[in-house]
Amino acid sequence: MRPRLPHASANYASRGQNSRSSEATPEIERHLRKRGIDYQKQITAAPEKADPDKRARLEAVKRCFHDDWQRIEPKLRTSIVEGISVFLSLFDDNPKVKRLFCQPKECYDSRANADFKYGRPLPFLEKAGSRPVSFSSALR
């Protein structure tokens, strides 16, 4: 017998375009086998047992996606995605940008990096106060 996951339920989902799902029971499994129906057993964590913070974040993402993102015109969504892609490609294309913003974890360890052999960590932006912050000098 397989160990059961705590706070989880199993579902059966048929494969293909007309897929359906159902809570897993021995009767349904027998029915599917008897009729030769191809299915997949999926283990799903019970949402009411999930970490409340994680559940709240997931609900916020769902709201943002369904209530905001999906309502944006497809051309504008494409433009936004392309802009983000170009921005993220800077980290791959320019090693100086990557070093500046993606410093190794050791860089922030005050003991291991006492001599700054891993680089100088970025100052916290809140220390900048109301002054504008520019990273362009670090890229030269």
Question: Care to describe what's here?
Answer:
With 140 residues, the chain is α+β, with helices and mostly antiparallel strands. The protein has two domains: 8-71, no CATH class; 103-139, no CATH class. The chain contains four helices and three strands; from the N terminus they run ββαβααα. A three-stranded antiparallel β-sheet has the order 2-1-3, with helices on one face. β1 (8-14) and β2 form a beta hairpin. The radius of gyration is 25 Å and the shape is elongated. It starts with 7 loop residues before the first strand and ends in a 39-residue tail after the last helix.
Specify the number of helices.
4
How can the largest sheet be summarized? 3 strands, antiparallel
Compute the number of strand runs.
3
- Output the helix-strand order: EEHEHHH
As a whole number of angstroms, the C-alpha radius of gyration is: 25 Å
Mean pLDDT comes to 76
Q: Order the strands across the largest sheet as they lie in space.
A: 2-1-3
Structural class call reads: alpha+beta
The separation of the N and C termini measures: 63 Å
Strand content: 5-15%
> What is the overall silhouette?
elongated
Helix content: 25-40%
Uncertain spans: 1-9, 125-130
Q: Into how many domains do the coordinates divide?
A: 2
